[in-house]
Specification:
2 copies of one chain form a homodimer. By secondary structure, the first copy, chain A, is mainly α. Chain A has 2 domains: about 60 residues, Homeodomain-like (Arc Repressor Mutant, subunit A, Orthogonal Bundle); about 120 residues, Tetracycline Repressor, domain 2 (Orthogonal Bundle). In chain A, about 70% of the residues lie in helices and about 0% in strands. Chain A is built from 9 helices and no strands. The first copy, chain A, is elongated and about 55 Å long. The interface between A and B is large, with 45 and 45 residues. Chains A, B: This is TetR family transcriptional regulator. Chains A, B: Pfam families: TetR_C_11, TetR_N. Chains A, B: Keywords: DNA-binding, Transcription, Transcription regulation. Chains A, B: It comes from Streptosporangium minutum. Chains A, B: GO terms for molecular function: DNA-binding transcription factor activity; transcription cis-regulatory region binding.
Chain lengths: ~200, ~200
């Protein structure tokens, strides 16, 4: 059996080191944000040798990028509820919870900041959201098949439109977000989707 | 007449220094982003003494914050067209143009990055968008008065919903934006607003 360094089985030393380092990264991001992220501090927090952290992750951008990949892997697709409004509210609530959770919210903000100045971080961020959008869009497709929405509805754009007002307030206009903002997003998207505004070349 | 240092009349030396420094800041942001912004480089580019730049702006966050204030001052409210759809398309197009203009787009991305890690930058960003949202919301209020939208429509939220999908793609999911994305935002918001989804406690 050919086992290269860095590809040991899940649960092995390599996986444990990665878990400790990514946990430490999330903690540090929650406390100091992206600009306060230093490799030495992460190595200390994780109880891992500095050489290992530098060799494997290279720098703060490498840490953020790997953290995004790990978060994407851990994001699980739930079964649909069979009701579009309930599905969209679940989606909006999951976005609200992620952005307002102290550690995860800070991680998302740090990822967004890193992406503004680094192409690799931007590509990782894009992959992270493309995957989430695709998973949730399947529920919208099912609603189209059930006849809840017009044929030709752009399901990915429906999902983007649920997240967008929450991210806009949290990241751009810097306004508070709560369950009313999430409910408004659902009401707006549902009304527009039912009216055919998400149908390509039709709205 | 009592003229304190730093409050000379517009067009005086203080204003010229500020203009040169903020121009240099936008150039540097367009080339290297927020993380590459250094005070020495800005002083060199602007042809201004380093001592002056350090004394007046303190650091990169001070430069970004002042740049935001300047951009907010220069953002002018246009007369409304008398037609809500045309007003919203003008708004969406102005957001699209800002985000895709090389220098201004990079400045907005840098401001967003700075706000993730600095409270003063976050407050300045909030002020910048609050002012823009308020100016455009007036046009939506006029449409409500004309009877184009239901009474009680949350005009500020209508405007946020126009910007949100453009910023979501440009800053969060890192997807391209173009006039189709802007047109979709207008179609979605108009359909939802007409259906009453932006009416408080009513949607």
């Amino acid at each position: 059996m050919d086992v290269s360094p860095g590809t040991l089985r899940p649960g092995g030393r390599t996986a444990r080191v990665r878990e400790a380092v990514l946990e430490a990264t999330q903690d540090a991001l929650g406390e100091h944000g992206f600009h306060g992220l230093t490799m030495d501090q992460i190595a200390d927090r994780a109880g891992v040798g500095k050489t290992t952290v530098y060799r494997r992750w290279g720098g703060p951008i490498g840490l953020i990028t790997d953290l995004m990949a790990d978060l994407a892997d851990r994001s699980v697709a739930h079964a649909d509820t069979g009701d579009l409004e309930a599905d969209l509210l679940e989606n909006a609530t999951s976005v609200l919870d992620a952005l307002t959770a102290p550690r995860l919210g800070a991680t998302l903000q740090a990822m967004i900041a890193a992406a503004t100045c680094d192409d690799a971080a931007a590509a990782a961020l894009h992959q992270f959201y493309a995957r989430r959008i695709g998973e949730w869009a399947r529920r919208v497709d099912l609603a189209v098949h059930r006849g809840e929405l017009p044929p030709g509805t752009d399901s990915a754009d429906v999902i983007r439109a649920i997240s967008a007002p929450l991210y806009y307030r949290a990241v751009v206009s810097r306004e508070p977000i709560d369950s009313r903002v999430a409910a408004r997003a659902v009401a707006v998207v549902l009304a527009a989707a039912r009216a055919g505004a998400f149908v390509d070349d039709g709205g």
